């Protein structure tokens, strides 16, 4: 089971590709939701208010990926899909790639546009620091304070990451582990008397 994915942690450097007087500015942004995409696009449009087109593609998610590609007034599939093709080519997710075009007076034709948007997206991704992250499952462990040592021993033995915890008479600890270790971790806690473990829904 694949338990890692590639993404970026911070926006990449701005890149510029020129073709027959048209300028194509390429950007990459880390995103977790479609709401974030809208906010970032608004900022890019303000920054490049005199541009002709703000084309983009994004992919979000690890298990169930969602994506969208937008031509923003360019001929059908001449901008958004070439950008999305580069997201697939670099095998990244939780990412937004935007290419802003300033028209230079010379029409490029559909083939020329496809090449220009693809190249600007590729350059933007090459300038981004792509990192690998683990796909994690989250569990909620509930237990009485008297069982604290048993729970903490398993957490320490298996080197489990604690996301947050409430340690009172009734204790609650949220943990995360790589998805490939999910069954092993669940069974380790499920065997302890008076300790309940449930997977946290996304």
Q: CATH superfamily membership of the largest domain, which one? A: Impact, N-terminal domain
Largest sheet: 5 strands, antiparallel
For the secondary structure, the number of strands is 11
- What is the helix tally? 5
Distance between the termini: 19 Å
Strand content: 35-45%
Q: Could you estimate the helical fraction of the residues in percent?
A: 25-40%
Find the CATH topology of the largest domain: Ribosomal Protein S5, domain 2
User: What is the string of helix and strand elements?
Assistant: EEEHEEHEHEEHEEHE
Number of structural units classed as domains: 2
**Highest CATH level, the class of the largest domain:** Alpha Beta
Mean pLDDT: 93
Strand order of the largest sheet: 2-3-6-4-5
Q: Specify Rg, calculated over alpha carbons.
A: 23 Å
What ranges have pLDDT less than 50 throughout 5 or more consecutive residues?
A: none
Structural class: alpha+beta
Principal-axis shape:
elongated
User: What is the correct CATH architecture of the largest domain?
Assistant: 2-Layer Sandwich
